[in-house]
C-alpha cells in the first residue's frame, strides 16, 4: 500500500478515514511467532483494545491468534468473530464480580488482578480455573499513562502480597492455572522486561498445576524512520532459553503467552485527513484538517508522535507547519513539523494509526466517527461505514415538553 494507493482510497471513501494494511498485521504476527519459534506451546493473544474491528479479529484468527480482552463486550466481539471461548483470555481491571462470573459462564478463561475479587470468586467457584495477574513492581513504558507495573499502579496483585494471595488460594481450594504480568507499553530495554520475568518465574513456583505463563506485551514500535523499537529477536532468544529452563525445573511443559496489541496493528494503520485551511499567523503556519482529537487523541492525550506525510504532494518542497484539528479546544497533532508543501485540499496521512485511534475516538463536538478500510490482497475493502446524523440520534430519547404537566 503506497502513497498513490492511499490517495485513491481517500478519493473513493472520503476523509477523514482509517486505513489498515492487512499484510503488515500478518507480518508482525509472524515476526513475533518466529522470534519464539523454539517454544513448542506458544500462544499469541491479540489485545483487542488496540483495535476491535471485527474484520481485524477475523484476519488474526486466520493466522492462529487468540485474543486478550478487558471487557465482556470485547469477549462477545471475539465470540462473534468465530473464536472459541478457550481461545480468549479475559483480563479486566476494576470490574464487578458479576461481570467476571458472566464471562466465566461463557467458558472464557479469566484473569483476576485483585485480592478482593479473587477471594470472592474462589469462594463461590473453587473449581473454575483462574489466572492471577501479579504486579512485579518493575516500571516499563514510555509514558506515565501507559506504565502499569509500578508500585502505585492499580493493576495486578502486588508481588509483596504473595502470602495473602496464597492464603486465599489455600483457604478456597481454587485452581490457579496461569500467572500473568504486564509492565506497560513502549518497552525500551529488554533487560527490564527480563528482570520482571524473573519475578514472574519466582511467583509461579508457588503453584503446582500451572498450564501457562503470560508475559503481557508492551513491545515498542518505531514512530519515525530510524526510531528505536523493542528488539523482539533478542528478547526471543534470551527469554526462550530462560522459559525452557524454568519448564525443566517445574517438571512440566507450559504454554508461553504474549498479548500484543500495538505491536501487531499500529504500523499497519494510516489515518487520512484533508486540509481545510492554511492559516498563517505572526509566527506559525497552521494546516487545519477535517478531523481532530475526536478521531486521533493520542498526540493530545499521550504526547505521542505520528509521522505526517502530504500524500497529495509527496515531492513538494518541505516547509514547517503546525497541523491542527477542527475541535473547539486546543487540538494539535504536530507543532512546527517539516512536511512537503501543503495547499488547501491536500490529503495528509498520519502514520501509526492502527492502534488506539478508532478505538479511542468519540463524537465530541457531535462529529461523526470516520469509516475504516482494510487494504487486503491489493484492494481496499470497507470494514466500517462512516457514521451519519442518524447515528448521533440513534439512542437519544426526545422528551415532548409540551405534553409534560407542570
Automatic annotation (TrEMBL):
GO molecular-function terms, A-Z: diaminopimelate decarboxylase activity; pyridoxal phosphate binding
Domain Orn/DAP/Arg decarboxylase 2 C-terminal as annotated: residue spans: 18-354
Family designation: Belongs to the Orn/Lys/Arg decarboxylase class-II family. LysA subfamily.
Binding-site residues for pyridoxal 5'-phosphate, renumbered to this chain: 218, 356
Residues with PTM N6-(pyridoxal phosphate)lysine: 49
Binding of substrate, residues: 298, 302, 329, 356
Functional description taken from the UniProt entry: Specifically catalyzes the decarboxylation of meso-diaminopimelate (meso-DAP) to L-lysine.
Protein name: Diaminopimelate decarboxylase
Key words of the record: Amino-acid biosynthesis, Decarboxylase, Lyase, Lysine biosynthesis, Pyridoxal phosphate
Catalytic function, reaction form: meso-2,6-diaminopimelate + H(+) = L-lysine + CO2
GO biological process: lysine biosynthetic process via diaminopimelate
Active site feature: 328 (proton donor)
Organism ancestry: Bacteria, Pseudomonadati, Bacteroidota, Flavobacteriia, Flavobacteriales
EC number: 4.1.1.20
Domain spans labelled Orn/DAP/Arg decarboxylase 2 N-terminal: 23-266
Cofactor(s) listed: pyridoxal 5'-phosphate
Involved pathway(s): Amino-acid biosynthesis; L-lysine biosynthesis via DAP pathway; L-lysine from DL-2,6-diaminopimelate: step 1/1
